[in-house]
Every structure is written in C-alpha cells, then in structure tokens.
Write a structure and sequence with these properties.
Blueprint lengths: L2 H64 L5 H15 L1 H4 L5 H10 L5 H5 L3 H31 L10
Amino acid sequence: MSLSAVLIIVAVLVIAPLAWYAWSLTRKVHRMEAQQAKEEAEAELQLRKYQEELISDIRFVSRSVLQQQCDITEGVLRLQYLLQGLDPDVWLMDELENLRSHYDATREMPILDAYKALTPKEQFKIDKARITLEHDNRLTIERDLKWLSTYHFPKVTLVQ
C-alpha cells in the first residue's frame, strides 16, 4: 500500500467522525433555535393576552364609573393601577389630568382595614372629603373617562 493511500485512509478516519460531530452539533443548534422561537412566540402570545385583559379591564372600570356602578374614587384608584401595568405614559397624558388630580387628592385616604380601624368620626370626615371631591370633579372626570374608554393604546403594539 502506498503512502498516499494510507494518508487518504487516515484522513477519512479523522474527517468522517469530525464531519458527523459537526452535523450533530448543527442539528442540536437548529433544535435549540426552534425551541427558543417557540418559547418566544408563546411569551408574546401570553403578553398579548395580558395586555388585552388590561385594556378590557380599563374600559370596564371606565364605563362602570360612567354608569355610576362604581364610585369615582375607587374607579380612579383602579385605573391608575391598571394603566401603570399597561402603558404608564397614558396616565401622564393631558386627557387624564382630572383623573390624576383626583388620584393625588385621594390616594392617601385609608381603605380596607386601615379605614375600619378609624373611629366613626374619622371615617365620617374622610367620607365627607371624598364625597365632596367626587361631586366637585364628577363632570371633568366623566369627560376623561369617556376619552379613556375609547382610547386605542397605540404604544401597546402587541394588541394592534
């Protein structure tokens, strides 16, 4: 057997396993990329669902306050929370200036257990202040809520 034949056999014995190893690594990379793409698509779908739920909740709360099924203060507190979770920039828009103003005036008022812990006199004082604010701000807040209930959230690109 000639030297060139031996070198060819050795080259084949070295190259063949290396080629098989490179091919198997390539397949593994393709499987990992496919899995990653699948996971990213699932994450995007979950985020889209979450964003759609937030938008639905925002519209529901806005309409509930407009139909007087929910107190203004409770609605404003809920909307602030929902908007922060969806698109915080919307909360800062000029169209919601009255909502922000009402929120700022009522956000420190005690609720739930903190409210129950107050004396009846303190509860009455807080209720009176809240009711006065709601009465004074009703028309401007309703205008803000009408705008918000039809807003399309253009920065929330997954739901477009």
